[in-house]
Amino acid sequence: MRGFPVWPVEAGHYAGEMDALFIALVIVTVLTAGFVCFLLIFFAARYRAGHAADRSHTIEKTWKWEVGWTTASLLIFVGLAVWGADLYLRLYQPPKNAVQIFVVGKQWMWKAQHPGGQREINELHVPVGRAVRLVMASQDTIHSFYVPALRVKQDVVPGRYESLWFEADRPGRYHLFCAEYCGTDHARMGGWLVVMKPREFAGWLRSQGGQPTLAAQGEQLFHSFGCSGCHGPGGTVRAPDLNGVYGGPVALQDGRVVTADERYVRDSILLPKSEVAAGYDPVMPSFAGQVGEDDLAKLVAYVQSLGNARKGAS
Amino acid sequence: MWTASLGPKPRMSEATPAFQFASVPQQREAATLGMWTFLATEVLFFGALIAAYSAYRIAWPDEIAAAARHTKVALGAINTAVLLTSSAFMASAVAFDEAKRRRPVVLCLLATAVLGLLFIGIKGYEYCLEYQEGLVPALNFQLGRYGGIGELFFLFYFFATGFHAVHLTIGIAMVVMLAVRTGAGHPPHAPVLRMVGLYWHFVDIVWIFLFPLIYLPGRVG
Amino acid sequence: MHGPRPNYLTAETTIRSWLFSTDHKRIALLYFASITFFFLIGGLAAVMIRLELVTPAADLVRPDTYNRLFTMHGVIMVWFFLVPSIPTTLGNFVLPLMLGARDLAFPRLNLASWYFYIAGGALTVLALLLGGVDTGWTFYEPYASAFSNGYVTLAVLGIFLSGFSSILTGLNFIVTTHKLRAPGLTWYRLPLFCWSLYSTSVILVLATPVLAMTLLMLVAERVLGIGIFDPALGGDPLLWQHMFWFYSHPAVYIMVLPAIGIVSELIPAFARKKIFGYKFVAWASVAIAAIGFLVWGHHMFVAGQSLYASLIFSFLSYLVAVPSAIKVFNWVATLHKGWIRFDAPMLYAFGFVGLFTIGGLTGLFLAALAIDVHVTDTYFVIAHFHYIMVGGSVSAFFGGLHYWWPKITGRLYPEGWARAAAILMFFGFNLTFFPQFILGWLGMPRRYDAYPPEFQIWHVLSSAGASTLAVAYAMPLFYFFWSLVWGQRAPANPWGVTGLEWLTSSPPPPRNFDTTPVVIRGPYDYVDGQPRPQAENV
Ligand code: HEA
Ligand code: HEA
Ligand code: CUA
Ligand SMILES: [Cu+2]
């Protein structure tokens, strides 16, 4: 036991503002509840049976009071809620230059893959002062990625990508939890978020051994799964060239236009029939059940790198 | 002497209302309101199923349509007609009862029950066909090419039509009972007949919703 | 030994006359015995949970056992204790009395509802005995169908059966309130408890069938292996959450509205004053029931629903707080210029107002999106709902039980002991659950049997509080039994308050009233602290 902690450590740019909102809510709550309790006790004491007090002229007309007090308290709370909503929306708008790390949750561990190909389990190393965007998937049931020091949490629902971004601003080791119940070792599914100074972080990345980058690993898979047979040059089937697709708008056969983000790429591989690119036959086979979440991440990283390549070139 | 626990059964007798009611009309109103409340419950029971089904229908329009083409739309349509006709007989039974004409009431009730049984028969035949074609989820499902969604469709199909058939069977039992008792000269009183009528129409309406939802996707346009 | 007139307790004495009774008062007692049993099982699980959490390591029970403990705790406390608690016991007993009726509209359905409840409870207990369920009371998918190795199907069918009990009770109350009111008893002359039971019944009737269907789909998925909710088979896990919360959010109002109704009885009764803003309080119950159907998505702010949906659900959650606010303010205003007495029921009512306010206001924290991101699935949520459900509803239940005990049993309970228990319960409660707000804010996730050591101090305090609470809950158990034998006999109206239920003798005769009362004015009519007769012809 170490004393009576009442405030969680703060390690993210977002935590400060959240804490301010929380304090505001606590103040308003204490005032409201305090007001209620004060009146309760005050009336109870003053108007207790047997105690002589002026009881003439009880208030009879009520609606003015009703409407008055209710709107007053409601407005204050809704004001705070708007603040909360604004913060919440920002939590879902990652900056463009964020470092992207793939995270896979499974019973009962978190696995992370860095762009450089480094992998880790139940630990996540990130540099201080850089926006980090996690692209997360689950291999089995729902998990939830939770770092209290950053005040962020996101459920990871199997069958789709969820993303979460943050910017850590204080080096240190912080708890990483799984917050959604996921079975026997739910309580042990977690570890540490390690926030490092940029130089140390670079050192850590290097110390993880020289493996090919995630995109390069994805390129290998692109060949071994046979994607290149269609999408590569001289393919037998008319399939779209994936260069430059990522990040741009894609016209679909049914007339919709969607952005080619990681969700789109993922769905293209697992559910090719759901969003067919305009002008192509829906002949791409589904790879559901053949490509695990780890490999999917690599393929997505590869397709992403193709997107950037074209943009760089043009 | 009256006893607390085994009081007289709340009877629907015209002369004396059950002890908790002050008058016969009050008892009748209570029974009717009770039936409507029960039907509200039923609406949400089927509503939940239809809502879930609709969610998938929106998410996977093509797959659902493809699977739905394996339903037997002709049989479904016939059954719709059968059920609608039965409802007409049910309504007539109520009307004849109000006119205090016993024979026609019995005949109409019997017609209602027979049509209800016919519906169940046709439905059973449909189930047989579907079994032979390998359309029963978890048992012998063979529509693999539509992936899990086809099977999901047929799960909803059997769920919805199955629950509907159970409701209909209960309805048939009640209608037969009414017919027998009326025929034997112990006609139950108007509220009972009207309540069973309400129930019958409700079961009919559920089918009216299920039919287009289940049979028609993939067949129009 | 008994008075000259037979009352409902003495009219017949065989076991059969109890088990097959259609008298709403006897069925209320049947229910009462059953929910007490389930409260003790649920409480036993809570005790085990709190014991395990005294130390950071998982040293008392194995992780799987812990998971089964909180699942059973949640399942039993929600479906077999709190949802049926007030409506089927106090509601069943006093609703017909308050309406001046001889029974509910459908006495046999009332009995059937108890049997459904018992059958459901038996299945759930069987699941428990066979080895339990480890899904959490929310049965989140795909875990519940594809990964859990507990007796999920059995427990789910138990809950399914108990749902019929809910529906039948709700239906019965709705019809009774509409059709069996005594002459002169207009809607605006109804006691507020009737309004709240009516609103509760609407939710019971409309929300429960959705849960029933949802549970059946879960069973189908689990037994047949078809992907309704499992993404590996083409299903959508979020659909489960939508359907579950579509029932379970309204269900939280099933659990609090009757309590709110009791408090609306207790406060005017012990302040000897007309309730402030009767119509507002009455319609607020209906409003809560209605708006309560529109906020379920606030349980899914980080589950991956669309941002747009989250914004709307957040806003609506604030809207649903308005009628609750109206109630709280009106209770307080009722005390103004009253003749306030501090009998045990009133102490519980005071406790309710304070704790419900705290629980409700922290609900507003959760509805403020950004805050929820941090505290969802932590002890903050646990504290929020225990404040309302235990500090609020259970307190109100005890308050109502003390209030109507003389009517139900014909005996007075020992007032000194009762006050002591009420006060002990209040302190024990706060000691148990206030630390959990801090734990949650610190980031302690829920459903954890082991946790980092820095959280320990608050867990120790919480467990200490739970022990206090166990003692406080055990006290009424003893003195209520004591009063059955040695308690003073109760007059018809021991509190000197308004309300038709106090017009008939304590305990009431089998058919409640010798002659049907004719109501001439509304409830809570006190002049200078004295009740005015509410009905004539009695
Ligand atoms: C009886 C039970 C009950 C009741 C009544 C409530 C009432 C409310 N609840 Fe609660 N809640 C639960 C039981 C209950 N809840 C449970 C069991 C869970 C968790 C389930 C699980 O995950 O296992 C939960 C979870 C829960 C969540 C999700 C948390 C999460 O998992 O992330 C949220 C989020 O919005 C929420 C909000 C609210 C709100 C806004 C109310 C409002 O109705 C409260 C209204 C009351 C007041 C506001 C107080 C009185 C008002 C005043 C003193 C006046 C001043 C205020 C204003 C005018 C605004 N609740
Ligand atoms: C609905 C009502 C309800 C009630 C009344 C309670 C009552 C209590 N709950 Fe409840 N609780 C829930 C509903 C309820 N709970 C729900 C829905 C969950 C979520 C489950 C989930 O995550 O799935 C939960 C979860 C939950 C947790 C979180 C577990 C976790 O996430 O890991 C904890 C932890 O402290 C807890 C504690 C308690 C305590 C100490 C009480 C006390 O108030 C209990 C006090 C009662 C007693 C102590 C019994 C009476 C004792 C005697 C008469 C003495 C003699 C008898 C014996 C010793 C058997 N509960
Ligand atoms: Cu993973 Cu909990
Ligand atoms: Cu809710």
Automatic annotation (TrEMBL), chain A:
Per the UniProt record, which residue ranges are transmembrane?
A: 20-45, 66-85
Which reaction(s) are listed as its catalytic activity?
4 Fe(II)-[cytochrome c] + O2 + 8 H(+)(in) = 4 Fe(III)-[cytochrome c] + 2 H2O + 4 H(+)(out)
Q: What is its main location?
A: membrane
Cell compartments where the protein resides? Membrane
Q: Which InterPro entries match?
A: CcO_II, CcO_II-like_C, Cupredoxin, Cyt_c-like_dom, Cyt_c-like_dom_sf, Cyt_c_oxidase_su2, Cyt_c_oxidase_su2_TM_sf
Annotated ranges, domain Cytochrome oxidase subunit II copper A binding: 96-207
| MF GO annotations | copper ion binding; cytochrome-c oxidase activity; heme binding; oxidoreductase activity
Q: Which NCBIfam families match?
A: CoxB (TIGR02866)
Q: Which family does it belong to?
A: Belongs to the cytochrome c oxidase subunit 2 family.
Stated role: Subunits I and II form the functional core of the enzyme complex. Electrons originating in cytochrome c are transferred via heme a and Cu(A) to the binuclear center formed by heme a3 and Cu(B).
Q: What name is this protein filed under?
A: Cytochrome aa3 subunit 2
Specify the species.
Sphingomonas changbaiensis NBRC 104936
From TrEMBL, chain C:
Question: Example GO biological process term?
Answer: respiratory electron transport chain
Transmembrane segments annotated in the record for this chain:
28-49, 69-99, 111-131, 151-175, 195-220, 244-268, 280-301, 307-326, 347-371, 383-405, 417-438, 458-482
Q: How does it sit in the membrane?
A: Multi-pass membrane protein
Main localization category: membrane
Q: Which reaction does it catalyse?
A: 4 Fe(II)-[cytochrome c] + O2 + 8 H(+)(in) = 4 Fe(III)-[cytochrome c] + 2 H2O + 4 H(+)(out)
Q: What compartments host this protein?
A: Cell membrane; Membrane
**Every Cytochrome oxidase subunit I profile domain range:** 18-520
The record's annotation in InterPro entries points to: Cyt_c_oxase-like_su1_dom (IPR023616), Cyt_c_oxase-like_su1_sf (IPR036927), Cyt_C_Oxase_1 (IPR000883), Cyt_c_Oxase_su1_BS (IPR023615), Cyt_c_oxidase_su1_bac (IPR014241)
Q: Which Pfam families match?
A: COX1
* One GO cellular component, as annotated: plasma membrane
Q: Which UniProt keywords apply?
A: Cell membrane, Copper, Electron transport, Heme, Iron, Membrane, Metal-binding, Respiratory chain, Translocase, Transmembrane, Transmembrane helix, Transport
Per UniProt, what is one GO molecular function of this protein? cytochrome-c oxidase activity
Please state the Enzyme Commission number of this protein: 7.1.1.9
Q: In which pathway does it act?
A: Energy metabolism; oxidative phosphorylation
Question: What role is this protein assigned?
Answer: Cytochrome c oxidase is the component of the respiratory chain that catalyzes the reduction of oxygen to water. Subunits 1-3 form the functional core of the enzyme complex. CO I is the catalytic subunit of the enzyme. Electrons originating in cytochrome c are transferred via the copper A center of subunit 2 and heme A of subunit 1 to the bimetallic center formed by heme A3 and copper B.
Task: Tell me which family the UniProt entry assigns to this protein.
Answer: Belongs to the heme-copper respiratory oxidase family.
Q: What is this protein called?
A: Cytochrome c oxidase subunit 1
Read off the lineage from the record: Bacteria, Pseudomonadati, Pseudomonadota, Alphaproteobacteria, Sphingomonadales
